[in-house]
Design goal:
Layout (H helix, E strand, L loop, with lengths): L8 H5 L9 H4 L12 H9 L8 E4 L6 H9 L4 E5 L3 H14 L4 E4 L13 E7 L12 H6 L2 H18 L3 E11 L8 H10 L2 E4 L10 E4 L5 E5 L9 E8 L18 H7 L9 E6 L2 E6 L3 H10 L2 E4 L1 E7 L2 E4 L1 H5 L9 E3 L2 H8 L12 E7 L2 E8 L4 E3 L11
Parallel strand pairs: 1-2, 1-4, 2-3, 4-5, 15-16
Antiparallel strand pairs: 3-12, 5-9, 6-9, 7-8, 8-9, 10-11, 11-13, 13-14, 16-17, 17-18
């Protein structure tokens, strides 16, 4: 699936309809993200100017998935762990990362303290920390009513707890990217200073073009942070700073018993569905077939010893006899073959499909087909003699508009 480069998103999105009624969004062609947060793409280019092998990345407070999808695209083929502790938000995160289609993404639902068992596991950790939300005052009047100095203090304490819990999982010389949508120094520069003084971290400076009108702030330890003010930029309030871990990391990971591999007969049956089958490891859980990049099989097993995994790799589907019943994840994934029969729909019929309505068309070909709009895959139908069964997930269907 072709993806729009991040630097072109703003101009491209202006040409699209409301994303809820846009099949391109449902196909995972783009993700709607706040403009200031997209500074992360520039930060990653500065931190990793050359391709990295076997990088392990954690987005700790990931829902709804903007930064995780950005990092999955920025580090194709690298292991991305996208975590959210709140169950309802973790479900939204899982849906959005499924829509994004990257096979190298693991979605987990855990508190930061659970990651202590993964000593030194990650090379890069993103912590977009829960905060008092003052950076959202312009677009969210509720944020103004909820703000108080007491809440700022409470958020600062929570941020220190989260960071002290997660830093053991960062490898020696690993990088932490810390951000908030708060203007309060107690949640921004003072947290950076606390990490430098008490958590054995050092600051990393990011080059910023002066024309971007991002404000560089200095902390009491001389560290640099980057502040985004709505009167200067086309985005909401935001703060970001980058730090490197100086101290050694001690691994405490224990290996988990490997999941049961599937038979060679089933793997042969998957070759007509999945491209480059030999690059993936296949396991079966409760009849569900899961494909994951083979070189990350052991690492994902280690994650399973400490974390609650909601999604890993790509859920391919289930075999009913010799026939695969494909899962929606396979339709959205980047591992699916390009020669699977497609039913390309116009906009009206595509929206009807996304509402899980009956399609008033009669394709000549029978069996499983990928539904597509303008070449982008939306999901599955099964064409029978007298009807088309719509397999779009009921919980994803468009309810309004």
């Amino acid at each position: 699936m072709e993806r729009v480069p991040w630097c072109e998103w703003g101009r491209w999105l202006n040409q699209r309809p409301s994303f809820i009624l846009d099949p391109f969004w449902h196909a995972g062609a783009y993700y709607v993200q706040e403009a200031s947060s997209m500074f992360l793409s520039h930060v990653l280019n500065e931190l990793f100017p050359s391709p990295i092998e076997n990088l392990r990345v954690l987005d700790l407070c990931a829902a709804p998935g903007g930064k995780s999808s950005l990092m999955a695209s920025h580090f194709p083929g690298q292991l991305i762990v996208s975590n959210e502790v709140i169950q309802s938000r973790a479900s939204i995160l899982t849906e959005n990362m499924t829509r994004w289609g990257s096979p190298n993404v693991v979605v987990t639902q855990n508190d930061a303290r659970d990651f202590k068992a993964l000593g030194g596991f990650f090379d890069l950790i993103m912590v977009d920390a829960p905060c008092s939300g003052s950076g959202l005052f312009r677009k969210d009047p509720a944020a103004i009513k909820e703000w108080s100095t007491a809440n700022v203090s409470l958020c600062s304490q929570r941020q220190q707890r989260i960071l002290s819990d997660i830093l053991p999982a960062l490898n020696e010389n690993g990088i932490l990217v810390y951000s908030t949508c708060s203007y309060s120094q107690e949640e921004d520069e003072e947290i950076v200073d606390w990490m430098i003084r008490d958590q054995n971290m050092e600051n990393i400076t990011i080059h910023v073009n002066p024309d971007w009108k991002i404000v560089e702030s200095r902390t009491s330890t001389g560290a640099t942070g980057y502040r985004f003010y709505p009167d200067r930029i086309r985005g909401e309030g935001f703060f970001l700073s980058c730090l490197r871990k100086k101290g050694a990391a001690f691994s405490t990971v224990t290996r988990k018993k490997a999941a049961e591999k599937i038979s060679k007969r089933k793997i042969e049956g998957l070759r007509k569905w999945i491209s480059e089958t030999d690059s993936y490891s296949f396991t079966e859980r409760s009849g569900n077939l899961i494909a994951m990049p083979e070189h990350y099989e052991e690492a994902i097993g280690e994650l399973g010893t400490a974390l609650r995994i909601k999604k890993s790799g790509t859920l391919v589907g289930k075999f009913a006899g010799d026939e695969l019943v494909p899962d929606h994840e396979l339709a959205m994934s980047l591992i699916i073959r390009n020669d699977i029969p497609q039913l390309d729909l116009d906009l009206g019929h595509a929206l009807a499909y996304l509402r899980k309505e009956i399609l008033p068309i009669n394709p000549s070909q029978k069996g499983w087909m990928l539904v597509a709009h303008d070449g982008l895959k939306l999901g599955w139908v099964k064409v029978l003699d007298r009807r088309i069964n719509n397999y779009y997930p009921s919980s994803w269907r468009i309810l309004k508009g």
